[in-house]
Each structure stands twice: as C-alpha cells, then as structure tokens.
Amino acid sequence: MDKILELVDALMKSQKEFMESWLKSQKQFMENWNQAAHIMQGTLLSLEGPQDSATKEMVNLYKSALATMVDSSKVLADEAGKLQTTWKDTIEKQMDMSKDMVKNFSGLFQKAA
Known about the structure:
The protein is built from 2 helices and no strands. By secondary structure, the protein is mostly helical. The chain has one domain. The mean pLDDT is 79.
C-alpha cells in the first residue's frame, strides 16, 4: 500500500513540475513575442519617408494598424496566460483526485483482504 502511494506521489510530483515548467515557458514565449512586436513597431515607425500627403497618410494608417496589432497581441498573451493557468490548475486538481482515489481503493482492498 505504501509503495503504491509513493509511486503515485512521485508520478503526481513529476506531472506537476512538468505543468509548471510548461506554463512558465509559454508565458515567457508570449512575453518575448510581444516585446519583439513592440521593437518591430518602434523600428518601422521611426523610419523617415517622403513627406507628401499620400505617403504621410499611408504611414499614419500603417502606424495605426501596427498599434492595433501590438495591443491585440498583448490582450491575446494575457488571455492565453489565464487559460493556461486555469488548465494547469484543473490538471493539478485532477491529479489530486486521482491520488485520493488510489488511497481510497487501497484502503478498501486492505479491508477486504
């Protein structure tokens, strides 16, 4: 019985560590991607071009589109982080429930024997 519980504990611990590592790497990826988008936007917006009205209007439209894309990517990153955290918490709860089930079944089998 104790060996089974030790095995289940070891399995649950490794799965929990995997989930935490996965969540951390996903958050870091989204932060890096968002930062790269900001850098790209800053670089493109700092470029000087001809100052005729059609070009100026086009640059303003492009700036607006880039700003919208960066803002949207930030929202996406935030929401993806929330979703991943919720998924991680759900998996951890499921692992805890499985551990409790193993304990309960082991107790029933010991009583039956």
